[in-house]
C-alpha cells in the first residue's frame, strides 16, 4: 500500500483528474486495400507508425492470421490498448483505441482516423465507408469515428 500512496503523491494531477481517457471506435467499410486486411505485418506497421507518432508505449503485441483470410492484431499499451479485426471478404475493419491520457480535444484521434482512412483506402459515408458503432452515426451524426470521453465520475 505504501508504494501506491507514494506513486499518487508523485502524481497529484492524477487524483484531481475526472477523465480516464478517450476511446475511439470505428467501423471501416468498403475497404479497397484488401492486401493490408490480410497482412499481420502490414497492420502492425500501421499501428507501429501510430504508436511512434503519438509516443504510445507498446507493452505487448499479439496477432493472429486466420485461415483462409483475416487478421486480428492487439497492442497492449501503457496508456491502454489498440485492437484491429479485419474481414477482407467483406472489405471491413473494426478498429478500437483507448488511451488514458488527458486530451483537451479529439484532434489526435481525428488524425489517427485520417491515417487509417488513407491506409485502408476506403470510402466515406453511410452506405459504404467509415461508420461509428452507434447506429452508423459518428461524431455530429455523420459517418466517422465515435470518440468517447471516459470519466471517473
Can you give a write-up of this model?
Helices cover 30% and strands 32% of the residues. The chain is α+β, with helices and mostly antiparallel strands. It has one domain (20-151): S-adenosylmethionine decarboxylase. Strands 1, 2, 3, 4, 5, 6 and 7 form a seven-stranded antiparallel β-sheet that branches. Strand 2 and strand 3 form a beta hairpin. 24% of the residues are buried. Mean pLDDT is 79; it is low at 125-142.
Distinctive features:
5 helices, 7-stranded antiparallel beta sheet, 32% strand, 153 residues, single chain, S-adenosylmethionine decarboxylase, alpha+beta, 30% helix
CATH topology descriptor: S-adenosylmethionine decarboxylase
Chain oligomer state: single chain
Q: Determine the number of helices (DSSP H or I, runs of at least 4 residues).
A: 5
Helix percentage: 25-40%
| Count of discrete domains | 1
Please tell me how large the radius of gyration is.
17 Å
Average predicted confidence as pLDDT: 79
CATH architecture: 4-Layer Sandwich
CATH superfamily: S-adenosylmethionine decarboxylase
Distance N to C terminus: 24 Å
Helix/strand/pairing category: alpha+beta
Poorly predicted tracts of residues: 125-142
Q: What is the CATH top level name?
A: Alpha Beta
The coarse silhouette is globular
- The sequence of SSEs as H and E is HHEHHEEEEHEE
Largest beta-sheet details: 7 strands, antiparallel
Count of extended strands: 7
How much of the polypeptide forms β-strand, as a percent range?
25-35%
Amino acid at each position: 500500500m505504501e508504494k501506491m500512496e507514494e506513486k499518487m503523491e508523485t502524481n497529484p494531477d492524477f487524483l484531481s483528474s475526472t477523465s480516464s481517457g478517450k476511446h475511439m471506435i470505428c467501423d471501416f467499410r468498403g475497404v479497397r486495400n484488401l492486401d493490408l486486411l490480410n497482412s499481420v505485418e502490414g497492420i502492425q506497421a500501421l499501428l507501429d507508425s501510430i504508436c511512434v507518432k503519438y509516443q504510445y508505449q507498446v507493452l505487448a503485441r499479439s496477432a493472429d492470421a486466420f485461415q483462409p483470410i483475416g487478421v486480428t492484431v492487439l497492442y497492449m499499451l501503457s496508456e491502454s490498448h489498440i485492437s484491429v479485426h479485419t474481414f477482407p471478404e467483406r472489405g471491413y475493419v473494426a478498429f478500437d483505441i483507448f488511451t488514458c491520457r488527458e486530451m483537451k480535444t479529439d484532434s489526435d484521434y481525428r488524425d489517427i482516423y485520417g491515417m487509417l482512412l488513407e491506409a485502408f483506402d476506403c470510402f466515406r459515408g453511410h452506405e459504404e465507408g467509415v461508420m461509428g458503432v452507434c447506429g452508423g452515426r459518428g461524431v455530429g451524426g455523420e459517418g466517422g469515428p465515435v470518440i468517447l470521453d471516459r470519466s471517473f465520475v
